[in-house]
Amino acid sequence: xxxxxLNSYFGDGTVLKGSLxxxxxxxxxxxxxxxxxxxxxxxxxxxxxxxxxxxxGALHNFGKISGNVEAQKNISLHTNSKLEGNISTPxxxxxxxxxxxxxxxxxxxxxxxxxxxxxxxxAVSGPASSINPxxxxxxxxxxxxxxxxxxxxxQKMAGAGTGAFLIILVMIWIVFGGEKRHGDAVSGExxxxxxxxxxxxxxxxxxPENSAGNAVNEQDIAGLKKEIEANQQNPQPxxxxxKISLGKRDYRSAIEALTQGATAMPKNEEIATLLxxxxxxxxxxxxxxxxxxxxxxxxxxxxxxMNNDGFQKMDSGSLEQAVSLFKNxxxxxxxxxxxxxxxxxxxxxxxxxxxxxQECLAILKDADDYAPAMNRLAWIYAKQGANLNNxxxxxxxSLAIFDDIPEYIDTLSEVNYKLGNYNDAVKLIKKxxxxxxxxxxxxxxxxxxxxxxxxxxAAPQQQPAAEPQI
Length: 470
What we know:
Blueprint: E1 8-10, E2 15-21, E3 25-28, E4 31-37, E5 41-44, E6 49-61, E7 64-66, E8 69-77, E9 82-84, E10 87-88, E11 92-94, E12 99-101, E13 104-105, H1 116-124, E14 150-154, H2 162-178, E15 191-196, E16 199-202, H3 203-206, H4 218-230, H5 235-247, H6 251-264, H7 269-281, H8 285-298, H9 303-315, H10 319-332, H11 337-349, H12 353-366, H13 371-384, H14 388-398, H15 406-418, H16 422-435, H17 440-458
Parallel strand pairs: 1-3, 2-4, 3-5, 4-6, 5-6, 6-7, 6-8, 7-9, 8-10, 8-11, 9-12, 10-13, 14-15
Antiparallel strand pairs: 2-14, 15-16
Helix pairs in contact: 1-12, 1-14, 2-4, 4-5, 5-6, 6-7, 7-8, 8-9, 9-10, 9-11, 10-11, 11-12, 11-13, 12-13, 13-14, 13-15, 14-15, 15-16, 16-17
C-alpha cells in the first residue's frame, strides 16, 4: 500500500450530511450520510462510517460503507472493512477479513500501452505535472482542478481543539486543490460553506500570496506541530505533515516528520509503512529495511513481510522462491513498488535483463522519480553497454535527493566508465570507497577504472566506441 499526497481530511468525530463533491484525494474518518461524487480518490478510514451513494474514480475502504458504489478505476476493500451494497468497477481488490455483501459488476476498460522509449523519456525528463509523487493508496491519476466545487453539509465536532484543527486543514485543502496547473489563475469564486460557528471561508481569502511555491503557509504547519506537541500519540498530524511534504516532493521533510512519528509510536503500521516506502523511494534502502522489519513484526501477513522473505531468499540464492514471494506480495498489493524492485533484482541475477528492465519501467511509469528503479535500470543499461546517455541521466537522478548512497554512486561510476569518462568514473568510485572503506568490490572497480585511465593517457588519440542502441 503506497501512501502519499492527501488533499483533504475529515477526522474522527466529524458528522456530515448532504452532497459531497470534490477533486483530489480525500480521506474521511468520521460519519457521513448523503451522496459522494468525484472523478478522483475517496478513502474511508478505519473509523469512517459512510451511508451514501458513491460515484468516484477510485475507492479505498478501511471502514464501513452502506450504499451502492460505482468506481471508474478501482475499488480496494481492506482488512476489517465492511461494504453493504452493489458495486461497479473494472478492478476490485479485497484483502483478508474484508466483508462485502451485494452484487458486483466489472466492466472491461481498455488501457493505453506505452513504449519503453516513452517511459524512459518520462523518467529522465524530470517531474511530470501529470504524475503525483505517489498516491494515498494505489495508483490514481492526480487532480487537475480546485479541491471543492460543492460542499454543503452540517458538522458536529467532538473533542476540544478539533474545530481549530479542521480550519487549518480546510485551508490546506483549498490551496492544494485550488492551485491550477501550468500557471492558470486561481478562481476566487469557489467557496467552502461549512456551518462551523457561522464562519464561511472562501478560497480567495485562504489563498497564499505565492500559490505556486508556498501552497501551505507556516501558520498551517505550526498548527499541525502544535497538535503533535499536544498529543504525540496521535498519528494523523504526523501523516498530514508528511503528505504535505510529499505533495511537494520534499522528501527530506516528509522523512523528518515520519521519523518523529515512528519514534513516538513504533508500533503504528501506517507510519512505519509510509516511512519505509519514502526512505526506499529516495534510495535509502538500508535505512528503509529497519521499518520494513518492524512492519513485518506488526503485521506478519503484510506484503512487506513477504518482500522481506523474498529478499532473504534472493540473498541466499533461492531465486525461484524469491520470485514466488515477490509475486505473492504483488497479488496482495498490486501497487507495491518494492515487490517489483525485488523481481528486477532476481531477474538481473538470472541474466534476464529484459525482464528486469520491464519491472523498472513499470515502476517509472507511475513514479518517475523512484530512485531504486532508476538506479537498477541504469545499471542494466551499463552492463549491456546500451542506452548509456539515458543511463547517465537516470543514475544522476537517482542521487538527486541523497548523494551519499555508495551503491548508487557505483552505478554512476560504471556508466561513466562505459561512456569513456574515466576521470569521472575514478572520482566517483573514490567517493564510494570513502563512504565504505571496508568494501573490496569498490577497490576492484577503482583498479579497473584507473587501468583504463592510464591506457587513455598512453593513447590520447583513441576515441571511445559509439554507444550501441537497443
